[in-house]
Amino acid sequence: EVQFVESGGGLAQTGGSLRLSCAASEFIYDDYVIGWFHQAPGKEREVVATIHKSGGYTYYSDSAKGRFTISYDSARNTIYLRMNSLKPEDTGVYFCANGPSTFHGHTLLYTGPSRFHSWGQGTQVTVSA
Q: Residue 99's pLDDT band (boundaries 50, 70, 90)?
């Protein structure tokens, strides 16, 4: 089973930027999505963004739209999350995982965390006010 290793977290100021990386250890199924998830202190894990392995379809949470960009580098088998305009509420641990994709027409859907597996160990992001 594929394993993911996240990196790139750290301390940022409000309004700043970070780029997270998620390196996959082996082949990801062609019809899979890879997702970035955020777990704030004392809260449940929530989806941030997902990307289909083809790179052609993405899903963003409302809080991520317009600020974050997810991308996939197939040559490096690595998924990135570019985070701009950071806010203190973005603080937490960021995880990546993969799972089967779900579409409605040409729209990539997010159907919940239970379909995702092979969770990485996470990378800590702290945004100071």
A: very high
